[in-house]
TrEMBL record:
Homodimer. One of its GO terms (molecular function) is transaminase activity. This is Kynureninase. It holds the Pfam family KYNU_C.
Length: 401
């Protein structure tokens, strides 16, 4: 087995670590998949924004830059980490709100052309907010949910999806990387299966944006959403993003038609006319501060390149699995062993993991806990070193004893 020192010395992305707040301390951070560390440059950028742009330009800022920020930042996200051409992605809202807007738009669109398509297909281990929003929309529109039962240590397979989709399917809602197990879904194949059945597909990219390769255009994806506070280090509550394939934009009607999605917001006219293109999916005033906070990380992701980031992510999770196999014989791996099917975290299962997590937090080793018995080790590629992985797994072994 290579040592952490060797792995860090050979890591072409190792120098990025020093760009993050707190990375020089002894604290072991295993939760960058829930809340990424801040990029050190962000503090200065926010200060400059307050003093010069907000404080200096005042209301003129909207005309000069802020009105376009949801779509210019959306285009940056699309180019840097979504494999999508410009004009299809907008930043703003939360993932939950995007899920509501895009799921509603999708099922209403399908119902107009084919009223017999009354099912939303979703899996039992899909992230809770996705399931709850789907439940709400089903109740609102008289639809039903068709559940795929999944193994919580894995995720949705092509065989499972093939079995449930058909003439009644309106929409398939899936997570690209499962939040519990890190199962990396075969997105191009699952998208093809949904399309062959005549359904639309929505991918939730919260656990993949910034950590794994995504090719929304090449995969022919219809709709996608994701957040920016996990592997995109935008900070707590930073804005989410939504993607709508260009071919669908003029066909879909989103349910929260606010003034910022109007063709001419400052006309302030009597009725709603949607803007052309992706802007019609915006609702209200965009959260500019959160967008400014995300930019330094996006630049780092662009410099490093998503392919190199994914390669390091695979190396980090593989190293964590290797160490856990050796040091924690009583623990089972609740994530895929095959790195090609695994996203950016590793979940270790044992009945005592809830108390083990609490003990680790007191010692400045910060993983998180997910039922049932899962210790989740999130390894954010640009801010995590192999040495941190080694010290963290050793601390888990100690806490278990
Ligand atoms: C983190 C996460 C969310 C969070 O949704 P918010 O609206 O940002 O709270 C949604 N879906 C998935 C798959 C997630 O991992």
């Amino acid at each position: 087995m290579s040592t952490a020192t060797d792995l860090d010395a050979a890591d072409p992305l190792a120098h990025f670590r020093e760009r993050f707040v707190g990375a020089a301390s002894d604290l072991v951070y295993f939760d960058g998949n829930s809340l990424g560390r801040p990029v050190a440059a962000t503090a200065g950028r926010l200060g400059t924004f307050v003093e010069q742009e907000w404080g200096g330009r005042l209301i003129r800022g909207w005309d000069e830059r802020w009105m376009d920020l949801p779509t210019t930042l959306g285009d940056d996200l699309a180019r840097i980490c979504l494999g999508a051409a410009a004009g299809q992605t907008a930043a703003g809202d939360s993932t939950t709100v995007w899920l509501y807007k895009l799921m509603r738009a999708a099922v209403d669109h399908v119902a107009r052309t084919d009223p017999d398509r009354t099912e939303i297909v979703i899996d039992t281990d899909n992230f809770p907010t996705d399931r709850y929003v789907a439940e709400g929309i089903a109740a609102e529109r008289g639809l039903s949910l068709r559940w795929i039962e999944v193994d919580t240590s894995a995720g949705v397979t092509p065989e499972q999806l093939r079995e449930v989709v058909g003439e009644r399917t309106a929409l398939v809602v899936l997570n690209h990387v499962a939040y519990r197990s890190a199962w990396l879904a075969d997105a191009p194949e699952l998208t093809r299966i949904a399309h062959d059945a005549g359904a639309l597909v929505l991918w939730d990219l919260c656990h993949s944006a910034g950590a794994v390769e995504v090719e929304l255009d090449a995969w022919d994806v219809d709709l996608a959403v994701g957040c920016s506070y996990k592997y995109l280090n935008g900070g707590p509550g930073s804005p989410a993003f939504g993607y709508v394939a260009e071919r669908l934009q003029d066909e879909l009607t989103q349910p929260i038609q606010g003034w910022m999605g109007h063709a001419d917001p400052f006309l302030m006219g009597p009725g709603y006319t949607p803007a052309a293109g992706i802007r019609r999916f915006i609702s209200g005033t965009p959260p500019i501060l959160g967008m400014v906070a995300m930019q330094a990380m996006l630049e780092l992701v662009e410099q490093a390149g998503i392919e190199a980031i994914r390669a390091k992510s695979v190396a980090l999770t593989s190293y964590a699995v290797e160490l856990a196999d050796a040091a924690l014989p009583e623990v089972t791996l609740a994530s895929p062993r095959d790195p090609a099917r695994r996203g950016g975290h590793v979940t270790l299962h044992h009945d005592r993991m809830r108390e083990v997590t609490a003990r680790l937090w007191q010692r400045d080793v910060i993983p998180d806990y997910r039922d049932p018995g899962g210790l989740r080790i999130g390894l954010s590629p640009l801010s995590t070193s192999f040495d941190e992985v080694e010290r963290g797994i050793a601390a888990v072994a100690e806490a278990m004893r």
